[in-house]
């Protein structure tokens, strides 16, 4: 569930930091390593189920090892941001929010991979806390970033930037107020999947409950933004973000046959700052769906 989000983030961060992605090969290699290692960690969900203790050890170590390729990606994305000319639009905000909350969820995952710690935390609210930091803060934040990024390409319409920024901040803040307290409720021993809890857990449950309604409601801003964009959104240019990958070198939405002639790719997709143009089109191709290559040197702020 997280691998597609990793792909979105690797596309979006270089575009809005206006920088080549840091460590392209290591990012690609670490995705393969995570995909492979992902098949070898399942028993970390069964540490308390009575499995043979000698079997716990390899699964504990394999689970800890998966944090290495994950860490390589996190550091590469952060290094891509470093010194970049960052454009804070909704797609980029969700991508950067992803970095913060997903990293947090990955770290609690490492806590849980340690068998002695898991014996204490399994079955408590620490698990829903981890779940939501990786699944909501990871997969869902990644999807949100991707929706804002590729929406103009898919629909041919722009979304409203201001509503998107509000959507991000409301989601990001209420997300943390909802799910952060679950960590300490869990450490104190509040069980998951039980509706009744001890009176000392009341306060943080109330806080989380109130924030959860704000979190759910913040999604209405996205739905409104989408509907509004479809009905009266500005027409999207071919390449509103000045991205360098191929899908942006064609009209929004792309014509049925995509490129009429096969474009010649002359440079790498993430080489921001390199002289344009970077794709060559057959000059005999008079299809006006294509933007002139290298036409827009200034980054878009919307
Ligand atoms: C560094 C990365 C990660 C590590 C080391 C890790 C480790 C763990 C461990 C050890 C557990 C079992 C806790 C228990 O039940 O006692 C757990 C639970 C869980 N993890 Fe992760 N995790 C990581 C990333 C992820 C990601 C990326 C996702 C999904 C996008 C995810 C989703 C879940 C879910 C849904 C559960 C709870 C399943 C359930 O009992 O309902 N984790 N994680
Ligand atoms: C407003 C948003 C959300 C709220 C308030 C919320 C709240 C909760 C709570 C309180 C639990 C624990 C229930 C219990 O153990 O008693 C839970 C479980 C869970 N949530 Fe969420 N959640 C939200 C969104 C999501 C999303 C977007 C995902 C996945 C992408 C997700 C995945 C899960 C999973 C896998 C469980 C474990 C279910 C189980 O115990 O069998 N949640 N959620
Ligand atoms: Cu797992």
Short account of what is shown:
The chain is built from nine helices and two strands; from the N terminus they run αααααααααββ. The protein is an all-alpha fold and 302 residues long.
Oligomer: single chain
Q: Give the % helix.
A: 55-70%
Q: What structural category characterises the helix and strand content?
A: mainly alpha
Number of helices: 9
Poorly predicted sequence stretches spanning 5 or more consecutive residues: 294-302
CATH class: Mainly Alpha
Query: What about the largest sheet?
Result: 2 strands, antiparallel
Instruction: Please state roughly what percent of the residues sit in beta strands, choosing from under 5%, 5-15%, 15-25%, 25-35%, 35-45% or over 45%.
Output: under 5%
Provide the spatial order of strands within the biggest beta sheet: 1-2
| CATH third-tier fold name | Cytochrome C Oxidase, Chain A
Task: Please identify, by name, the CATH architecture.
Answer: Up-down Bundle
Q: What small ligands are held by the chains?
A: protoporphyrin IX containing FE, copper (II) ion
Could you walk me through the main structural features you see in this protein, from its secondary elements to its overall organization?
α1 (3-17) packs across α5, α2 (24-37) runs antiparallel to α4 (67-81) and α4 runs antiparallel to α5. The longest helix has 31 residues, at 202-232. This protein has 9 helices and 2 strands, in the order αααααααααββ. By secondary structure, it is mostly helical. 58% of the residues lie in helices and 1% in strands. The protein has a two-stranded antiparallel ribbon with strand order 1-2. The radius of gyration is 22 Å and the shape is globular. The chain has a single domain (3-232), classed as Cytochrome c oxidase-like, subunit I domain (Cytochrome C Oxidase, Chain A, Up-down Bundle), CATH 1.20.210.10. Bound molecules: protoporphyrin IX containing FE (HEM) (2 copies) and copper (II) ion. One protoporphyrin IX containing FE binds at residues 128, 131-132, 135-136, 139-140, 178, 192-193, 212, 215-216.
């Amino acid at each position: 569930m997280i691998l597609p989000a990793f792909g979105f983030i690797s596309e979006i961060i270089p575009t809005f930091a206006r920088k080549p992605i840091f460590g392209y090969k290591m990012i690609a290699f670490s995705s393969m390593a995570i995909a492979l290692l992902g098949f070898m960690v399942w028993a970390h969900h069964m540490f308390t189920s009575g499995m043979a203790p000698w079997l716990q050890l390899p699964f504990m170590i394999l689970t800890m090892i998966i944090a290495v390729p994950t860490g390589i990606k996190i550091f590469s994305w952060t290094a891509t941001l470093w010194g970049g000319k960052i454009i804070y639009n909704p797609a980029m905000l969700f991508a950067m929010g992803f970095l913060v909350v997903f990293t947090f969820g990955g770290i609690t995952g490492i806590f849980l991979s340690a068998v002695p710690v898991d014996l204490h935390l399994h079955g408590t609210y620490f698990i829903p806390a981890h779940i939501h930091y990786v699944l909501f803060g990871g997969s869902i934040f990644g999807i949100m970033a991707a929706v804002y990024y590729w929406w103009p390409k898919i629909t041919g319409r722009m979304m409203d930037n201001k509503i998107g920024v509000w959507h991000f901040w409301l989601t990001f803040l209420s997300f943390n107020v909802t799910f952060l307290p679950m960590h300490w409720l869990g450490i104190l021993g509040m069980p998951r999947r039980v509706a009744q809890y001890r009176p000392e857990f009341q306060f943080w449950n109330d806080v989380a409950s109130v924030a959860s309604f704000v979190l759910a409601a913040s999604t209405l801003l996205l739905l409104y933004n989408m509907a509004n964009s479809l009905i009266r959104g500005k027409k999207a240019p071919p390449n509103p973000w000045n991205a360098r990958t191929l899908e942006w070198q064609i009209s929004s939405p792309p014509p049925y046959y995509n490129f009429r002639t096969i474009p010649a790719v002359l440079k790498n997709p993430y080489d921001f700052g390199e002289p344009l143009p970077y794709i060559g089109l057959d000059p005999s191709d008079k299809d006006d769906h294509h933007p002139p290559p290298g036409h827009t040197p200034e980054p878009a702020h919307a």
